[in-house]
Amino acid sequence: MDKTYGAMFIGGVLTLQAYIYYESFPDDLRRIKVLVAVVWLLDVTHLVLICQSCYHYLVTNWGNGPALLIATRELDLHLIFVGIATLVCQGFFLHRIWMFSKHNWILTGVLTAACVAVFAVEILLSAQILQVPSVAYFSAHTGEVMVLFSLGGAVDVAIALVLVFYLQQGRTHFDRTNFVVAQVIHYTVATGLATSVLAVACLASYLAAPHTFIFIAIHFSLGRLYTNALLATLNSRRNLRHGTQIQRSPPSFTVMTTRVVTSTVDEEFPMSPRSVKEFPPPPPAPMAQ
């Protein structure tokens, strides 16, 4: 039981993330607030599907061996909701790449096509399981599952690397600006690496134990990790703002520059390296004779 349905009970903290976001950024653009609401609803729906599946197997059909071999509709639908949530969150990061790259349609288009391909594989798996509702389906279709997890992990790594590349271009000779850029790079690498590692963990657990639900439990958490990565990226602006304000520097103009940079982060959720470079510090005032 601990390696099958017991492995499904893994939760998240997205509701807390959403609460922190709405409390910290009441003046954000409306489309960003709507995006957060949509992501939260997708995550809650996904959680309901997980709970219903566990209740069906562990309560309603307790002791009913044959029922444990049949995939419920909720277990099938979770693939769709994970795919939708993943695509929405990846779209958020792809929009940042599109802005950072000065509207590079080729780069953004290639990454978008890869994300859509991963989503298509998830929809294909869901449709096939709906026709053959058996929990043994995954172990009998190794190719599709391997493509799903391997391509998904590769896409996450690519998105993170591209974001880091363009953020590096935002570095200047001003320490406060570099502090902001370094922190944004840190969050980007952390979120991109987390989803990539979890996708690899899904693949590894599937190859090691295809007849258990360990990889399914990790996949449950994968969708929720994407949504938490998006909220963590938005909420990281609060830490950036606080971190730059507590930096001590005798010349007042450098502190002013830092605040200008961090305010541009709040105006539009993707911090563009170009926006950092557009705010050099003013020259120091002449000293009184």
Describe this protein's structure.
- This protein has 289 residues and is an all-alpha fold.
- The protein has one domain.
- 74% of the residues lie in helices and 0% in strands.
- It is built from ten helices and no strands.
- This is ANK-REP-REGION domain-containing protein.
- InterPro entries: DUF6534 (IPR045339).
- Keywords: Membrane, Transmembrane, Transmembrane helix.
Characteristics:
single chain; 289 residues; mainly alpha; globular; DUF6534
Quick summary of this structure?
This protein is mostly helical and 289 residues long. It is 74% helix and 0% strand. This is ANK-REP-REGION domain-containing protein.
Topology of helices and strands:
Blueprint (H helix, E strand, L loop, with lengths): L13 H11 L5 H31 L12 H28 L4 H27 L5 H4 L1 H27 L6 H34 L5 H32 L6 H16 L5 H5 L12
Helix pairs in contact: 1-2, 1-8, 2-3, 2-8, 3-4, 3-6, 3-8, 4-6, 6-7, 7-8, 8-9
